[in-house]
Design goal:
This protein is of the alpha/beta class. It is built from ten helices and nine strands. The chain binds pantoate.
Length: about 280
């Protein structure tokens, strides 16, 4: 695997690479990331991963400084997965001068994650657009755990006419249901035992919808209350339409099979997010 720290190196390495499938990451890779590279391998001739902890998408009180940086282990994992090139720029390479131009996502970017992490999606879209321009992939793979990110990046690609297919990869879970995430490493042993409750609560709501419940607001409130009872500080538990992530109306014809349930909550100092489909849904938007 070739490791490129500069855009110039990367351009040299990828000249004539054929169809490039790209997996952008912030490192501290786990099985979920490795699943992204596996899907990328099936989609392209050359697989490129990036590792860049993007300051622009962290709020002032978030974990940018302590975000785990595990380059040696990450490099070994990507190598094992047969990734062809790793782009690992430093901050100066990505932002040689202050980034004055930003991508402004649509109002969806201010809901759910965006409501609790102001500016998050501006930062994500800005760095993803820059990475796309440097890597020039034909395909890019994003995890469905960050469902809103997947939706917003897909929308950006459509609206800016970028010739890139955005592929969503199923969430990889631990045996007890906890969605794999780099932030799981922050959990204490007791918190790690409690953490799968987030998935259980979301799954419980999804199953209730599948069996005919349409009182989404009650289901959300019950889900929030259950998490709070067990010591979580809940940001949101939300039933949304899986395609546009808009709020479903109980009386409107929103087929329940198209709904998803999303949640974000803090356990101690660790913020976890997850989402589940009422029934498994194809990767379309
Ligand atoms: O999902 C992530 O890890 C990040 O948001 C991404 C897409 C790599 C952009 O920094």
């Amino acid at each position: 695997m070739k490791i490129c720290h500069t855009a110039a190196d990367l351009a040299r390495e990828l000249a004539g690479a054929g169809r490039i499938a790209f997996v952008p990451t912030m490192g501290n890779l786990h099985e979920g990331h490795l699943a992204l590279t596996r899907l990328a391998r099936a989609k392209g001739d050359a697989v490129v991963a990036s590792i860049f902890v993007n300051r622009l998408q962290f709020g002032p009180n978030e974990d940018f400084d302590r975000y785990p940086r595990t380059m040696d282990a990450d490099r070994a994992g990507l190598e094992r997965m047969g990734v062809d090139a790793l782009f690992a720029p430093d901050e100066h390479e990505m932002y040689p001068v202050p980034q004055l131009y930003r991508v402004k996502p649509p109002p969806l970017g201010e809901e759910l994650e965006g409501a609790f992490r102001p500016g998050f999606f501006d930062g994500v879209c800005t760095v993803v657009l820059k990475l796309f321009n440097l890597v020039r992939p034909q395909v890019a793979v994003f995890g469905k755990k960050d469902r809103q990110q997947l939706k917003i990046v897909r929308g950006m690609v459509q609206q800016f006419n970028l010739p890139i297919e955005i592929v969503g990869c199923e969430t990889v879970r631990a045996e007890d249901g906890l969605a794999l995430s780099s932030r799981n490493g922050y959990l204490t042993a007791t918190e790690r035992t409690e953490a799968p409750r987030l998935h259980r609560v979301l799954r419980g709501i999804a199953d209730a919808i599948a069996s005919g419940r349409r009182d989404y607001a009650n289901l959300e409130a019950d889900g929030r209350a259950e998490l709070a009872r067990h010591g979580w500080q809940v940001d949101y538990v939300a039933v949304r339409h899986g395609l546009g992530l808009r709020i479903p109306h109980p009386e409107a014809f929103d087929h329940p099979n198209l709904l998803i349930v999303l949640g974000a909550a803090k356990l101690g100092a660790t913020r976890l997010i997850d989402n589940v489909d009422v029934v498994p849904m194809p990767d379309v938007d």
